[in-house]
Amino acid sequence: MMPGTRNIQGIGMTSARTRDRLVKRLKQSGIRQPEIIERIRNVPRHLFVDEALSSRAYEDNALPIGQGQTISQPFVVALMTQALLEKDGDLLPLTKVLEIGTGCGYQTAVLAPFVKQLFSIERVAPLLRETKQRLAELGIGNIRFRHDDGFRGWPGQAPFDGIIVTAAPVKVPEKLLEQLGPGGRLVLPVGPVGGEQILYRITRTTNGFEHEKLSAVSFVPMLEGREKGAGQ
Ligand code: SAH
User: Fold this and answer.
1) In the chain, what are the domain boundaries?
2) Rounded to the nearest whole angstrom, what is the distance from the C-alpha of residue 82 to the centroid of ligand 1?
3) Which of 22, 49, 102, 127 has its CA 20 to 30 A from that of 225?
4) pTM of this prediction?
5) 158 vs 34, 63, 154, 170, 182, CA distance in Å?
6) Mind telling me the catalytic residues?
């Protein structure tokens, strides 16, 4: 037996069982789209967390990923993906989507195959560096990354037909609304840190914006400015 083989198999077996359990939970919690459920089953979430936590990777919980940040709960990733893509029971073929808060790239990896081009912004440089490499190793190629403050959006690539934000601002950022194309959707949590945050879907209509409340959620705060690394 190769060194370490047993370990890897051990995690593999645990993960087959826990992945089934996770899928069952997603279905019970209102994730209706089979393709999204299968995508969550297949993305190797254990590769997005610290090795020490890999045995817990398929539990339906948020986990720490370093730099004071977290990997989102699979249910919330599935819910946001569904909110962004689903219309009248089907999945929309979105062309240009902007993601804010790349983090470890788990939401990015789940969403990528459903959209033509994904643009992803992260404010913490070392996180972004690691994540770019991880997603390249997983063979996910339709993503452009940017180290920037997501409050600005990505004006050079706007308009977007979807924008997804995985950190919580206290109020909806005006610039992101401006960068939505006609019929475009913004899925984001809004609210104070440690207080009540609500996940919204905001759709650009012919006369303005339609707001839908989706769920109570708990995200790290969306912060202003860029960071070069820990402690800066
Ligand atoms: N999407 C990740 C979760 C990310 S946690 C997942 O799938 O698990 C939130 C991320 O948003 C953190 O990496 C944080 O650094 C980033 N973030 C917070 N404020 C931001 C901003 N203004 N612009 C870009 N990224 C931001």
Assistant:
1) 3-217
2) 19
3) 49
4) 0.93
5) 30, 32, 6, 23, 12
6) 72
Q: Return the residue matching tokens 């993960």.
A: 15
Give the closest residue (by CA) to ligand 1 atom 4: 103
Virtual CA dihedral for 204, 106, 191, 230, nearest 10 degrees?
Answer: -130
Residue 129: Cβ-neighbour burial (10 angstroms; 0-12, 13-18, 19+):
middle
Our mutation pick for probing the ligand 1 site, out of 166, 171, 197, 218, counting the most ligand atoms within 8 A of Cβ, is 166
Helix (H, G, I), strand (E, B) or coil at 214: strand
CATH of 3-217, one of 3.30.230.10, 3.40.50.150, 3.40.50.280, 3.60.21.10: 3.40.50.150
Least trusted range by pLDDT, from 6-15, 25-34, 163-172, 179-188: 6-15
Amino acid at 210: E
Give the chain's mean pLDDT.
92
How much distance in Å is there from the Cα of 219 to the middle of ligand 1?
Answer: 9
Residue 123 CA, ligand 1 centroid: distance in Å = 7
Task: Select from 161, 167, 1 the least CA-distant residue to 71.
Answer: 167
154 lines ligand 1 (CB under 6 A): no
Would you say the CB of residue 49 lies under 6 angstroms from ligand 1?
no
